[in-house]
Specification:
single chain; mainly alpha; 182 residues; two-stranded parallel sheet; Rossmann fold
Length: 182
């Protein structure tokens, strides 16, 4: 759901322009802990269809060292996922964040500056992090997984994800976000 919402957000905001006006290539993929080839739950397809996004042809892709290596950033729904990414590739620690952590740390360091690369912005976010933050069960940095719950739980998660995605996109592409509001 998060990847699909992020793709739509970027398309709507024409967010492929960096803060300094240069064009960026933005590719968003989706991978997780499930084995590859698993269809999303019917509730996910329904909730996303209500938002005008068709996930009927989507199938899971399992995270792998190769996927992590080529990613500029790895955005996880929970600390468990971030732990798995860092176990797969210890060097990914500086680019693997939960979505809520991106929002929280993005608020603390501010939006990308003119001329600042994604890698540099992520380095600012990463500064001061401790691996121990990936341990524990607090929901502070985890998005609730509605799996097995009622349709309204999926809707609530989609609403939360949409807000978080919008927040992160506004930090990554502040010029475009500002122009859009006018």
């Amino acid at each position: 759901m998060a990847a699909a919402l992020f793709r739509r957000r970027l398309a709507a905001a024409d967010a492929t322009t960096a803060p300094d006006g240069t064009l960026e290539t933005v590719a968003i993929g989706s991978a997780g802990l499930l084995p590859s080839g698993v269809a999303p739950p019917a509730e996910v397809v329904t909730v996303m269809a209500e938002r005008g996004i068709d996930l009927g042809a989507h199938y899971s892709r399992q995270i792998s060292p190769e996927l992590v290596a080529v990613a500029d950033a790895v955005v996880c729904m929970g600390r468990r996922h971030a732990r798995e990414v860092v176990l797969i590739d210890p060097g990914a620690w500086s680019k693997a964040f939960t979505l809520k952590e991106l929002v929280r740390r993005g608020d603390a360091v501010g939006p990308r500056h003119e001329g600042e690369t994604l890698a540099d912005w992520l380095a600012r976010l990463h500064d001061g992090r401790a691996r121990a933050e990936l341990v524990g069960q607090s929901a502070a940095d985890d998005v609730d997984d509605p799996l097995g719950g009622p349709l309204d739980a999926y809707r609530a998660t989609a609403d939360e994800l949409a807000g978080l995605v919008d927040h992160v996109a506004a930090r990554l592409w502040p010029v475009r976000a500002t122009r859009r509001r006018r």
